[in-house]
């Protein structure tokens, strides 16, 4: 098993994104570090536009993720509805 | 009726496919003269895909938003005398290393991507390199702006481009990028996009920037994370590049593996300075270098190389050495600088008692046994008024250009020493990794501009070390160099803080 991960700046927008990630990836681990939040999961992780919009209460473009993104690990796939990270196992 | 909005995938396809053109009257090979000499075989450039599918309109939109956020914070930082909020004056010395050692590399990356972006036959690769080139220019600019505030209050920030080109330890990062940029375009991508960005930059920009926040340095944390938001994109491209090359032709596999081996080792040597910044230069600690290495290389890199195994790619050569080095490298590097503190453009110090205890706790197998006694001795000598500075110029490794101070990893009291003979001359190395890199391309590395050799050859002015430091490096002696204890930096800090 390999872990994928994503880290976001610790701010008000990320808070909703993290909530959405937790909801869509119930096994993910959330780690708080100074000024940043890191989320890791075994093999894959998904950020869904619909869930983030529901948490934020506004329209959200998946590409807005770039504004708060610090780093990630795993093969990326992004379209209008989601960003996913995965390792081939 | 309004036109249907294009989705992300269609937009990206239109940008990267339909912007290209056929060469009807010009020779394609002459248009892209560097595409073949490295032996890399590309059969279909259209297979290149940016997984973020970033198009120019979205790129400008989000980059502009990042900049606005960043500069609002720089203004607030300057207007509120942010330099007074850092943990203590020692911390700022890590930022001096950043400005003189790292920011010029961002500029080199900007030049490098502009160059290779011109050399690729595929539009997708050209667009990706163009964006990254602009990103890197943004990074160097934002770093200069952020650190210009510190330049008003602390020594050592005043002549960073001049210092980068000349000062002995800054030849380590400078020569790293010179090496990458003087390679072919595909090697440059494996060196910088993959080995450096994907495998190693997290170690600089993630835990260290988190450490900057933890030490009250809002400006550095913010430019670091803002840069890193671009790096996340660069890393992703780094991974796509390597998969693209490996899928294009099986003959590419051994060439790519050789570059991974070389650039992984070059990168770990370059990061020894970051190791020391994390373990010794952050008064408030986030994690040790060893812990950062375990999370960001062993775990993340382990997952990566497992993923790449299906192409026939293995872990980089000498990775087993780094497993041992993580216990030693930061201590050995800081000791080198403590010994040569008179010749550095930043201040050095002996760790405080609490810091020594933290190091003992984080390095239970090595610190008390090998390194604590050195600091206890240094402390004793300092108390007796016998602060010791090494006066002899050190021998440098021909490949990484770091003074030969690293040890055998199985015998940490023995300095590691390797050598190779080439055309009647002897060349010296700090490790098997650096010797291996030289032996693969001796005709390149015999040209290395080694600062100590250059001083002895009389190419750096003056007959004495002091003249070299003062006239050739332009260090303000007595202000930029030596220990933090008794420095003008420390004196000003105490005045600002109202302590005697």
Description:
Chain A: Pfam families: MmoB_DmpM. Chain A: It comes from Nitrincola nitratireducens. The complex is a heterodimer of chains A (89) and B (500). Chain A contains two helices and seven strands; from the N terminus they run βαβββαβββ. Chain A is an alpha+beta fold and 89 residues long. In chain A, a hairpin with a 2-residue loop joins β2 (29-33) and β3. Chain A is globular, with a radius of gyration of 12 Å. Chain A starts with a strand and ends with a strand. With 500 residues, chain B is mostly helical. Among the domains of chain B are: 37-345, Ribonucleotide Reductase, subunit A (Orthogonal Bundle); 350-387. Helices cover 61% and strands 3% of the residues of chain B. Chain B is built from 22 helices and four strands. In chain B, the strands form two sheets. A two-stranded antiparallel sheet of chain B has the order 1-2. A two-stranded antiparallel sheet of chain B has the order 3-4. The A-B interface holds A 2-5, 7, 9, 33-36, 62-64, 66-80, 87-88 and B 7-9, 51-54, 58, 62, 65-66, 69, 202, 205-207, 209-211, 213-214, 221, 225, 228-229, 231-233, 235-236, 239, 286, 299-300, 302-304, 306-307, 310.
CATH class of chain A: Alpha Beta
- The CATH superfamily of chain A turns out to be Monooxygenase component MmoB/DmpM
Mean pLDDT rating of chain A: 94
DSSP helix fraction of chain A: 10-25%
Structural class of chain B: mainly alpha
Number of helices of chain B: 22
In sequence order, what are the helices and strands of chain A, one letter per element?
EHEEEHEEE
- Biggest sheet record of chain B: 2 strands, antiparallel
**Sequence of secondary-structure elements of chain B:** HHHHHHHHHHHHHHHHHEEEEHHHHH
Distance between the termini of chain B: 75 Å
CATH superfamily heading of the domain at 37-345 in chain B: Ribonucleotide Reductase, subunit A
| Helix content percent band of chain B | 55-70%
Q: What is the CATH topology descriptor of the domain at 37-345 in chain B?
A: Ribonucleotide Reductase, subunit A
Q: Briefly note the CATH topology name of chain A.
A: Phenol Hydroxylase P2 Protein
Label the overall shape of chain B. globular
Known CATH architecture of the domain at 37-345 in chain B: Orthogonal Bundle
Q: What Rg of chain A do the Cα atoms give?
A: 12 Å
GO molecular function (chain B): monooxygenase activity
Protein name (chain B): Toluene-4-monooxygenase system protein A
Keywords (chain B): Monooxygenase, Oxidoreductase
Domain YHS (chain B): 410-449
């Amino acid at each position: 098993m390999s872990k994928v991960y994503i880290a976001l700046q610790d701010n008000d927008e990320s808070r909703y994104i993290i909530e959405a990630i937790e909801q869509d990836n119930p096994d993910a681990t959330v780690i708080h570090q100074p000024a940043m939040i890191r989320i890791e999961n075994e093999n894959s992780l998904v950020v869904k536009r619909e869930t983030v919009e529901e948490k934020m209460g506004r329209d959200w473009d998946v590409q807005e993720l770039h504004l708060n993104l610090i780093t990630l690990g795993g093969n990326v796939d992004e379209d209008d509805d989601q960003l996913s990270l995965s390792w081939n196992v | 009726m309004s036109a249907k909005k294009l989705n992300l995938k269609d937009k990206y396809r239109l940008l990267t496919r339909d912007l290209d053109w056929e060469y009807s009257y010009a020779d394609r090979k002459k248009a892209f003269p560097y595409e073949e000499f490295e032996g890399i075989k590309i059969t279909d450039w259209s297979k290149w895909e940016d997984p973020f599918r970033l198009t120019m309109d979205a790129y400008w939109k989000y980059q502009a938003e990042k900049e606005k956020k960043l500069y609002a914070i720089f203004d607030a930082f300057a207007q509120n005398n942010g330099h007074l909020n850092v943990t203590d004056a020692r911390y700022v010395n890590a930022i001096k290393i950043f400005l003189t050692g790292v920011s010029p590399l961002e500029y080199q990356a900007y030049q490098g991507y502009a160059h290779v972006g011109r050399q690729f036959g595929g539009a997708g690769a050209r667009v990706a390199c163009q964006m990254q080139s602009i990103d890197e220019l943004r990074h160097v600019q934002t770093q200069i702006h952020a650190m210009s505030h510190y330049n008003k209050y602390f020594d050592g920030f005043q002549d960073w481009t001049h210092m980068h080109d000349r000062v002995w330890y800054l030849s380590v990062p400078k020569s790293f990028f010179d090496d990458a940029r003087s390679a072919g375009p595909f090697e440059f991508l494996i060196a910088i996009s993959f080995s450096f960005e994907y495998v190693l930059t997290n170690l600089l920009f993630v835990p260290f920037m988190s450490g900057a926040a933890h030490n009250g340095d809002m400006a550095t944390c913010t430019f670091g994370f803002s840069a890193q938001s671009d790096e996340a994109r660069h890393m992703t491209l780094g991974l796509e590049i390597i998969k693209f090359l490996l899928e294009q032709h099986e003959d590419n596999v051994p060439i790519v593996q050789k570059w991974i081996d070389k650039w992984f080792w070059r990168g770990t040597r370059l990061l020894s300075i970051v190791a020391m910044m994390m373990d010794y230069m952050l008064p408030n600690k986030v994690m040790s270098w060893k812990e950062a290495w375990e999370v960001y290389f062993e775990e993340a890199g382990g997952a990566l190389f497992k993923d790449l195994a299906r192409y026939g790619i293995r872990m980089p050569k000498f990775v087993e050495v780094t497993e041992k080095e993580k216990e030693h490298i930061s201590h050995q590097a800081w000791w080198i600088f403590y010994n040569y503190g008179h010749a550095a453009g930043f201040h050095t110090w002996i760790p405080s008692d609490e810091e020594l205890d933290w190091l003992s706790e984080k390095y239970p197998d090595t610190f008390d046994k090998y390194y604590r006694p050195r600091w206890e001795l240094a402390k004793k000598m300092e108390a007796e008024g016998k602060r010791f500075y090494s006066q002899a110029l050190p021998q440098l490794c021909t490949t990484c250009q770091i003074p030969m101070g690293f040890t055998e990893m199985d015998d940490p009291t023995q300095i590691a020493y390797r050598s190779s003979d080439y055309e009647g001359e002897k060349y010296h190395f700090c490790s098997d990794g650096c010797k291996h890199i030289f032996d693969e391309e001796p005709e390149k590395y015999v040209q290395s501009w080694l600062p100590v050799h250059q001083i002895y050859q009389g190419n750096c002015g003056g007959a004495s070390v002091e003249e070299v430091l003062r006239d050739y490096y332009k260090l303000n002696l007595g202000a930029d160099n030596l220990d933090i204890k008794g420095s003008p930096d420390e004196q000003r800090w105490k005045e600002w803080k109202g302590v005697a």
